[in-house]
Design brief:
By secondary structure, the chain is an alpha+beta fold. The protein is built from twelve helices and eight strands. A hairpin with a 2-residue loop joins strand 6 (244-245) and strand 7.
Length: 291
């Protein structure tokens, strides 16, 4: 089967999920079970991606790459057809994508750096904060990546030279992305990818934001600034939501920008300055909606 055929099926499956929902489902007479719960207000973000040619290209290229890399999955003709039919019957595009390219719908979007990562999405702590408010390492935290003495020294230098910005914090963190596919017997396998140690910049939002602005409106603003982030600092992570630090949920939402050392340790100060401009601009745009 040619890649163009797969793209056509991808497109048709997308339409089946979002544009031809059975009337009974619309009226709430029946429910449709899916592998992952459907993201709320996703259609607005889809529209914004469709309006951005670079975003469309990134998503297409990642899909091509992940589909090509899935060639060793040994998917039989029958398994392929069953996955396609199940996607139609269950209106679950993610299940089909996981079968053919090892990513759910939102894995592809996150891993193409097209949507922000929710802090602690589905109960998984991400990013993991590695330093306390004084910049000291939290000893009881264990992650898959080792912190080198060079990385910690660079972090301390940045911390000591940082400007005094209100409701702002710099910490050392471990961040990652995820993808999902199937194990045997339809068991979902979650894999961490892009695991890094890096600098996490946190821009705290007041409680009034949650009380006065709809979450999808805030998310839309965060998306706009994430596109700026990827233009200036490709492969930086952007987080949004309520962060759970060491099992203690923070009182309000935050914007997070994560700069992995692997990609940003050269000219780190300049990279942080650019990221701060984007993070502060994003926060200011959000706050302007409640003034």
């Amino acid at each position: 089967m040619y890649v163009d055929d797969i793209i056509y099926i991808f497109y048709i499956s997308f339409l089946l999920k979002y544009n031809t929902v059975d009337e009974k489902v619309k009226k709430g007479m029946i429910s449709v079970e899916t592998i992952f719960p459907r993201e709320e207000n996703a259609e607005h973000i889809f529209e914004k991606i469709l309006e951005n040619e670079d975003a469309c290209e990134r998503l297409r290229e990642l899909f091509y790459e992940e589909f090509a890399n899935s060639g060793n999955r040994n998917l039989s003709e029958k398994q392929f057809v069953k996955a396609l039919f199940d996607a139609y019957q269950n209106r679950d595009l993610s299940a089909f994508l996981m079968e053919i390219c090892g990513n759910s719908m939102f894995d592809l979007l996150r891993n193409a750096f097209l949507i922000p990562i929710r802090f602690n999405d589905k109960g998984v702590i991400n990013p993991v904060r590695l330093t306390d408010s004084e910049g000291e390492l939290i000893k009881q935290i264990k992650v898959n990546k080792q912190i080198s003495s060079k990385q910690y020294k660079m972090y301390k230098q940045i911390l000591n030279q940082a400007d005094d910005i209100p409701d702002y914090e710099i910490c050392l963190a471990y961040g990652f992305r995820e993808k999902h596919d199937y194990r045997q017997r339809n068991e979902i396998n979650t894999m961490k990818i892009g695991e890094h140690i890096g600098i996490l910049l946190l821009f705290k939002l007041p409680k009034e934001v949650e009380e006065n602005i709809k979450d999808n409106e805030v998310y839309s603003i965060v998306w706009d600034f994430m596109m700026r982030l990827e233009e200036q600092l490709p492969r930086a992570f952007m987080y949004y939501g309520i962060m759970d630090e060491n099992k203690f949920e923070q009182p309000s939402s935050e914007i997070g920008i994560f700069l992995p050392f692997r990609h940003f340790e050269h000219q780190l100060e300049k990279n942080i300055e650019q990221a701060n401009g984007i993070g502060l601009g994003c926060r200011e745009r959000i706050l302007s909606m409640i003034k």
